[in-house]
Amino acid sequence: MSTLPGLLRTALTLAATGVPVLPLRAGKAPFGNCHRCAQNACGGRPNMKTAGPCHCAGVCHAWAAATTDPAVIASPAWAAAWRRAVCVGYHPGGAGLTVVDLDDAEAITWACGFLPATRSVATMRGEHWIYRGPMASRNAVRPGVDIKSTMAYARYLGPGTGTMADLPDAVRALAMKGPAPVRPASVTVPAGAGAGGCPHRTPAYLDRGIAMAEQRITEASSAVHATVYRTFLAVLSRHGRCGCLTDAHVSRLFTAAQSKGETARHCADAWTNARTTLGL
To answer: Beta-carbon neighbour count of residue 166 at 10 Å?
Structure first.
């Protein structure tokens, strides 16, 4: 049996697949620069136009320290950092990836209607949506949404669920400075359980959002209860007040949950709890 610490073992496994990794300390932050490089005395490697790596012996310069070299990752110079680390970080851009960091339910529901489905990883409050392809990183592209790719780091939170899609132009556009993307024009959709027309979404938008919610539930490989509740919460936070949800939409979500072993009672409780949380 391997005697490697769990985080180091995870880091080496990721590195073997071409994902540059680094240890992260408490607060999900990288370790501080070494004495020689403190306060960017060396010129500030993170300001380089290309993606790392840092050439210091220890864990230095945040994302630029990320590497796929097992000799560096398991080196004595990195050992102290791994002993203090609380999670594994990685450089998405260095792995040819982009992470759309969705901080909360509102951000998730926005993404369900605006971005194509891709691999998703649950975070404490939201989700990471991972696309194939690098781009410039940028924080706060809209409320609750950050983009982490080149010259940035993200936490590794597991393999996630869903099939990874190619980076779409819609994500690239988010990093461009300028007006926010225009939402679809308002139309009326058939009334149902909510008894009213949706004032801010097209029928196709709603159907797509429900389909993505079904996919998120059916592809959950763990924490099914939490995934079902979080998905219900996301759907209701966007459409729970506008009246566009019909009995058929709700039935589709419950059926997806039951296909993963949830009982009808669990579905009803999760739906009620989500409505209560949102004050519906």
So the answer is: 9
